[in-house]
Amino acid sequence: MIGILPHIGVVAGVVLTLLAVIFMLQQRRTPQSAVAWLLFFVALPYLAIPVFVALGIRKRGRGFPPVAFSRDGAASDAASGPAATFAALGVPPAEGGHRIEILEDGQEAYARMMALIEGAREEIDAAFYLVADDAVGRAFVEALTGRAREGVRVRLLIDRLGGWRHPRRALAAFREAGGELRWFSPLVAMPLRGHLNLRNHRKLVVADGLRAFAGGMNVGGEYMGPDDAPRWSDLAYLVEGPATAVHHDLFESDWAGRAPGLPQGRDPDPTGGEAVAQLVPSGPDMRGDALHDGIVQAIHTARRRVWIATPYFLPTEYQAQALATAALRGIDVLILVPRISNHRIADFARGAYLRDLGSAGARVLLYEDGMLHAKAGLVDDAAWLGSANFDVRSMLLNFEMALFLYDGQSVGRLETWFAGQERRSSTAPVTAGPGRRIVEGVFRLGAPVL
Fold this sequence. Notes:
Organism: Palleronia aestuarii
Strand content: 15-25%
Keywords: Membrane, Secreted, Transmembrane, Transmembrane helix
Number of domains: 3
Number of helices: 15
Largest sheet: 15 strands, mixed
CATH superfamily of the largest domain: Endonuclease Chain A
Distance between the termini: 41 Å
CATH architecture of the largest domain: 2-Layer Sandwich
Transmembrane segments: 6-25, 37-57
Strand order of the largest sheet: 4-3-2-5-6-7-1-8-14-13-12-9-10-11-15
Pfam family, one: PLDc_2
Subcellular location: Secreted
Order of helices and strands: HHHHEHEHEHEHEEEHEHEHEHEEEHEHEH
């Protein structure tokens, strides 16, 4: 009896490994990700299987049903570029009639966000990856607490992993005042549910379902605050108009953890605005990978320029090939990243990608004035900004969103922003020593798994 136990263990290990491999191959993932997981399964199967269950599953149908969008507007004739591609991939169409304010400064963004909270009449819905345990995070929670005491319904959703260091006392007072607090994917449930690697990276505040603040900024002193202290370079926006309903739909889906039963979106008040916008979500709650696929298609069809700003540049192979091909055919390809980010592993893993693009003719710039945390892009006459980094995690794993803009004024504003960042940047080197290339290769190999 004792002798048969090792045999049973071996057979069980082989069966579980085969099942894991079959399941992994059925999911869409980059070629390097598939190879990395296969090597992991072969080398350390008893470790690889539980790690895959916790970290490797991209889409969980029962855990994250697709978002149900409450609004089905008519596409704007002024929309161009990737708008039709996104609509074909299941994203609500681009519409006109928006008033949009792009916020380039953390002090201004903080003031606009707090004013939005103060001006809400009936409901405030907020979701963030991170609410820091600092003066800014506490002031934000206290503002929500004050509105809850005044009878406004206030809901706050924080990602459990990103928000592990949070203002505990302020949040306790928030709940005592009637505020509703939920944690996205509590970590204690992760190993069994397989959600540990699927984080909610969206950042938004919706007031009365009619106005929204969103973008790349979390709530913390590095991102925003009431004074002009030095901060990371980042972007946020305020939007009124049809796309606000899509912001609200995303919050409702994230809050409930399910798609059915969403309330009908409110018809937006006429704004008198002329901006043309389209909110593009991505993540396990979308049937496909619309954000990733739409950007790849836009790069392939670009005629003049492809400009990308991101703190972490770890593209999928499809994105890397599209960018290199665009540069080789004479398109102005610009990649803007911080010289040193807050994640050194990402800095090492990006090196080979950046040098390959530089060799293909792309302009690769290193932001020198501190940390660049903005996530933005321009492809010809379309622009975007939002929460999604230009990396595998944002494009294929996390819950993200990006606001695409198609009107000349909005695109021009982001074009001006890029020009300002370029003046604070230097050209990245096109060579690296053998030691650095080896280190970069190791981190690049692990990037698809991590």
